[in-house]
Design goal:
The chain is an alpha+beta fold. About 25% of the residues lie in helices and about 35% in strands. The structure holds N-oxalylglycine and manganese (II) ion.
């Protein structure tokens, strides 16, 4: 039984590792360190320059309060028992994600299924095939996601994620210019959508609590659960 569980776990890690084709980017740029940005900003979007602002703004979306508290509770109640059985993983220094546990889910109760139907309706191009199981990622308060690009082999043009339990900051950096960046303020209960080049030509990451600033304001990072839908490549 134990062996079986271990094999299942390994298979699951392999599956997620295929999704996460990640890259390390330099931490030495001052832009990556400074909590204060002088970039261009709107309520949930800020950028290091006008050019990247206009390029990326039309490829990303954050819908604040996409779910209400009841729906957040329903998702949490459905996910927590399974998540609680796992331990947060901190020890893989070379993983894209630090301080996390994860699962995937195909079958949902009515309320959650309703939420996911709305996500699919607003986020994905009509007729696109979705990756069957929904990916659930639980980040510890001390957890974070390093810059990476989701596998182009296994995932298509669009990534859509619900954020539960905590606000957080997602940063996108062009793969070919690490001096530029945009930040998305992912408020608790929001839905974010990354499309096309924003998903293919930029790394994305979720900042650790110490680096979690938006427009000069600290955005405290607590435990955060994301529920992520992806489509399949064409
Ligand atoms: C990922 C990822 C973002 C999130 O799992 O590949 O980028 O919102 N997750 O948790
Ligand atoms: Mn990702």
């Amino acid at each position: 039984m134990k062996l079986l569980a271990k094999a299942a776990k390994q298979a699951q890690r392999a599956y997620f590792q295929r999704i996460l084709v990640y890259r390390f980017t330099s931490d030495s740029s001052p832009l990556r360190k400074g909590p204060r940005s002088t970039g261009l900003e709107c309520q949930w979007f800020c950028a290091s320059s006008q050019e990247i602002f206009s390029t990326v703004r039309r490829l990303v979306e954050v819908r604040q309060n996409f779910i209400n508290e009841e729906e957040e509770n329903a998702l949490f109640k459905e996910l927590e028992p399974g998540l609680r059985k796992k331990r947060y993983e901190f020890d893989h220094w070379d993983d894209a994600i630090h301080g996390f546990r994860e699962t995937e889910r195909l079958q949902w109760g009515d309320v959650c299924e309703g939420v996911l139907r709305r996500v699919r309706e607003v986020a994905f191009p009509k007729g696109s095939s979705l990756l069957g199981p929904v990916h659930v990622l639980d980040l510890d308060k001390a957890g974070y996601i390093k810059p990476h690009v989701d596998s182009v082999k296994f995932c298509g043009s669009t990534i859509a994620g619900l954020s539960l339990l905590s606000d957080s900051i997602m940063r996108l950096v062009p793969e070919n210019n690490s001096a530029e960046w945009v930040k998305l303020l992912l408020s608790r209960r929001s839905l974010y959508i990354l499309r096309d080049d924003a998903r293919f030509k930029y790394t994305h990451e979720i900042l650790k609590d110490e680096e979690s600033f938006f427009s000069g304001q600290k955005v405290p990072r607590h435990r955060r659960i994301s529920v992520i839908c992806r489509n399949l490549p064409d």
